[in-house]
């Protein structure tokens, strides 16, 4: 059992139903408020060297996110997960609920709910009402599947906890930017947070920030920001830091994109999540945020005074790659140094050449 | 051996398609409001305006691939920085239109005034159209259509209709033209009529030997995408179905020595239509049907024709937002395939694993297991790309196809 599975098993064994959610921006506050532990099934790469069970269901041109996710759920076979929730994002992930359903043995079948988040602005006709309907359906499903009851006060309490967690995340990222922590350490912590209760996330981040406050800033290297669906593998992050790069911005789907915006607190899930999805920090997976993406990225680079940008591409992620040429062109026009890397399942053998590229890039932007 | 005699409907199709592309260019030059759409977007809506035309980049990319310029256009997009892993339709389209229509056998598409995509056939299409939205500063209207793991629900239909109403207002505002619902209703009637004849055409595959090949249906589906809502489409499909039925009555069929009746699962390999059909014909094998085309004009998870009598035109158009296979979940795809196998007495299924279409392909391993193990029908999976020939190996594919025919023989013993 790997570290993530142990974390989830601890939650499960403590008597809390664990709901595996994918992709990254499900209604966590709502799930938490019902006494269910939401686990965002993302970032399994460091924990699985191979994906033999997923390979029986997915061709090798599916992205590693999908393949690791299927591997995790099929290996787990209900040992720690008590249910699954999926919302619409990309073409690969939307196929997974039924594939997972077929892959699990009949006696290990999990309750599964699919949830459609409007992929248009909430200002469009019918979008808010449709989201409300979907949320009502989700609440009804959660109440029936886990014998729980929705409570607006509990929801508001969960909303506030998540807001606190997001605030701490921003603080932790600031410390990393100031050289009081290595970004690779923060990324490693973030990888684990998805599998913790928000109360434990807050405690872990408080510890992290507390330790940072005691530290003297390390000498600053060349300031860079990273974009991607996932952070690069730990070895690559360490190679970046070893090459003298200070990662000051994390336009990563499980980091800054996930916690940059906290909606106005509310007891009403429909109002809260309309705000959440409408004003979410732009992510390539959230179609209505596309027009805001480049300005938000440029503003982030400016705020954190990053002079260079590294794209950590996940092979076969169309959502990221359709935007790459445009973003690259715009940033280069502003004099920002750009490095594009690509990661895929099983690329551990090829990290050497990537390290060489990183070193060369670090030398280039230093000049 | 397959007989490659171009039918009258085939000749008619060539004229229709050629004229369609040329007409669009001329009308755009004369000031028509041009909309680029994803294939499922309800084109009948645009018929409600006096001078709005629509173009379908996916269909144009398929045409480019079929005419042998797919790879060169893909390379043009790759040279602009677009990953080789992106859908080849998108790469062809960007390669063509960021080079002023270069290499297009149709002279390219007239530049759009509005882009309309949806996210149920494939989400990446919205990302693809976003590229033009950014580069050319053209408005992009996304239709948010819930994916159907189960047949469409009433609430989903209402949500879709509300978006159609929004789309109509958007076109009115941008084009300055007034929408006429009666003209749209007439276009919808034309589409319903065309679908009826399409089902009649496909039914010729039930004949033994089959009256058609899936390759015929691949080619003939083009005007469903580019001429939806027109009386010409309904008339063409009436002609096609009549001619096909007459040929079957006269015993004129594409593979008279048909020994193997196969079903194809995925988009057509546009660059291989003639070659693949010919080589299979030499083996007395005929791919008589395809999931890509058999779902048109039917309900999700079934081949039964749609019934529209109780629906308004906008509701009907919302109801067929799942008219291709890609918005269907695995269970629905399995149900339809089971019906197809039974009704057409299929001997084997070819699963074409298509690197450019994840939404179609990433269910196939489970679907293949279902067909093979639960329906007891031999299957094979081959690697293809619908428009990028570099990702296809003919010899490798045929080694596997021949193995399928052997396993069908084995099952018959």
Structure description:
- The complex is a heterodimer of chains A (367) and B (413).
- Chain A is built from 16 helices and eight strands.
- Chain A is an alpha/beta fold and 367 residues long.
- Chain A has a domain at 16-146: Rossmann fold, CATH 3.40.50.11890.
- In chain A, strands 2-1-3-4 form a four-stranded parallel β-sheet.
- In chain A, strand 1, helix 2 and strand 2 form a beta-alpha-beta unit.
- In chain A, helix 6 crosses helix 12 and helix 8 (183-193) runs antiparallel to helix 10 (234-242).
- Chain A is globular.
- The relative contact order of chain A is 0.13.
- With 413 residues, chain B is an alpha/beta fold.
- Chain B has two domains: 8-179, 3-Layer(aba) Sandwich (Rossmann fold); 183-412, Rossmann fold.
- Chain B has helices spanning 8-29, 57-66, 70-79, 88-97, 124-136, 154-175, 181-202, 214-220, 222-226, 231-249, 273-282, 291-294, 313-319, 330-344, 358-361, 364-374, 394-412, and strands at residues 33-37, 52-55, 114-118, 140-143, 260-265, 285-290, 348-354, 379-384.
- In chain B, the strands form two sheets. A four-stranded parallel β-sheet of chain B has the order 2-1-3-4, with helices on both faces. Chain B has a four-stranded parallel β-sheet with strand order 6-5-7-8, with helices on both faces.
- In chain B, helix 3 packs across helix 4 (88-97).
- At the A-B interface, helix 4, helix 5, helix 6, helix 14 and helix 15 of A face helix 5, helix 6, helix 15 and helix 16 of B.
- Chain A: GO terms for molecular function: iron-sulfur cluster binding; metal ion binding.
- Chain A: This is Benzoyl-CoA reductase/2-hydroxyglutaryl-CoA dehydratase subunit, BcrC/BadD/HgdB.
- Chain A: Belongs to the FldB/FldC dehydratase alpha/beta subunit family.
Topology:
The complex is a heterodimer of chains A (367) and B (413).
Chain A: H1 3-13, E1 18-22, H2 28-33, E2 37-40, H3 64-76, E3 83-87, H4 91-94, H5 96-103, E4 112-115, H6 127-146, H7 152-177, H8 183-193, H9 198-214, E5 222-228, H10 234-242, E6 245-252, H11 256-259, H12 269-278, H13 290-303, E7 308-314, H14 318-321, H15 324-333, E8 337-343, H16 351-366
Chain B: H1 8-29, E1 33-37, E2 52-55, H2 57-66, H3 70-79, H4 88-97, E3 114-118, H5 124-136, E4 140-143, H6 154-175, H7 181-202, H8 214-220, H9 222-226, H10 231-249, E5 260-265, H11 273-282, E6 285-290, H12 291-294, H13 313-319, H14 330-344, E7 348-354, H15 358-361, H16 364-374, E8 379-384, H17 394-412
Parallel strand pairs in B: 1-2, 1-3, 3-4, 5-6, 5-7, 7-8
